[in-house]
Amino acid sequence: MRQVLRRKGRVLDVMRDDLALLRRQLKGGDAKLLEQLAEVRRREASVVLVASSKDRAASLASLRREATRLERDISGRSAAFREVTRAVTIESVQQALPTDGALVEYVTYLPDIVDVPHGKLRYAAYVLLSSGAPRAVDLGDAGTIDELVQKLRRMLADPRSLPDAVARELDQRIMQPVRPLLGGKTRIFISPEGALQLVPFAALRGEDHRPLVSRFSFTYLASGRDLLRPAVTTSSDRDVALVGAPVFGKDGTTAKTREGPRSVYERMQFPPLPGTADELGSLAKMLPAAKLVTGVDATESAVKRIRAPRVLHIATHGFFLPVDSPVGGTTTDTVRSAASPEAVSARAGPMLRSGLAFAGANRRVDGADDGILTALEASTLDLSGTQLVVLSACETGLGEIRTGQGVHGLRRALTMAGAETQVMSLWRVDDEATQELMRAYYRQLLAGRDRIEAMRRVQLELLAEPRTRHPFYWASFIVSGQGGPVFAQSPEPTVPPVEAGPRGCGCRAAPASTSGWWALIVATMIGLCRRRARLRQWEFLR
Hints:
By secondary structure, the protein is of the alpha/beta class. It has helices spanning 2-7, 10-25, 28-50, 53-79, 90-96, 142-156, 164-174, 250-254, 274-286, 300-305, 375-378, 410-417, 431-446, 451-464, 471-474, 514-541; strands at residues 101-109, 122-128, 135-141, 187-191, 217-220, 240-246, 291-295, 311-315, 318-320, 354-357, 372-374, 388-391, 399-402, 406-409, 421-425, 477-481, 498-499, 508-509.
């Protein structure tokens, strides 16, 4: 397990640390390196999304050579400021684990034993508690498990489906063998690999056929090493930034708006999202000090200008374009698009095939603000010290899966930018249900709840309602990264001490104030009025 902790997410750690270190310590001309790299990333994204196919190859080659040169310079300069990387040990991760927590590291491997066909990829899980040696369990053929993952994801994304049986079958494969190793722990830190990175573990069903969210709290990590990252507090006076409900442009505003899921469709045209305006308006009332940016002001440039808020909430269209996705594809994870084949080919790279849409996105003009913030560009945002990024959009947690390096997409980009925790979606989400979930989530956060537990409580609330019982409504959003509260808890009302009465019962409170007596008198009068009203109603019925 020691090698697993050191390997998984290592590239992501280095890139994130390099950017954070440079932002803190590079000054003058050296600091311009990051600005230059961000500009090259913007131009690279613009070429893929806008340029004609005949110009695209040459332009991309030139820009990538320039990006490579800048990255080389950044690496050289950051090395001068970097301390020796602290060795990751099992003991250090155990010290970071809460006593009621367990780390589950999923890995893929090629077996080299007699009774297993050689060369066939398999899944395994390592479990680490706050004390004791790590334990491991083989989970079986990766191909079989991956097929179940895709089947379940298709069903979870369709509110008309019946996913319970498949959710139970996948649990039997990937969680039931793990549970005996958890030692009764209920806070599970999941570090998945392969297709498991796109599974909402809360929606799996245990032996009692209940969703696992009813028993466990799940935190998603790139690696168990994430537990060792120190929290960085921000000095920004803009505690919360709310961005969204953009005006996408004339094509989007005249296109027929589809009700229901927030999704990108025909020719990458983005329809209006009236629900996001309501959502942000509600949150602004809950967070009166927040900075609110909507409509024509909700631009790509406006997001890039934001510097390390405590919370960044973005409500808009999100997209992920799989490699060689068919035009007009209808699969759950495929964004329906008539973009040229080159734009969705492997050459574009996963960080250019996922992103967010902002004001003017339908006009798709070249320049500093084309309305599309790709994951590649998002990785250069300054989110050092940002405790929480919420992407209230569809498919923001998707990306290209690379073994040992996590999901290449917005999830990876925001981690590189410095965000401690991200709330993202795994499929196209219902607009109305998303508003309800987000309002409930912030109510929990404002009550001082942990970032992880706050989401779990909201999911349980939605699960309890017949209208939103299907996992489609509550399981799409996952919390990835660190836990802990974001806002200070409101003080609890003081309860006066209770003294024992003459008969030994606790029925006599401490002396009350005069205002307390008035409250008692008023309450008594109200009760008498209600009683008289009930008596009159009874006389009328007789």
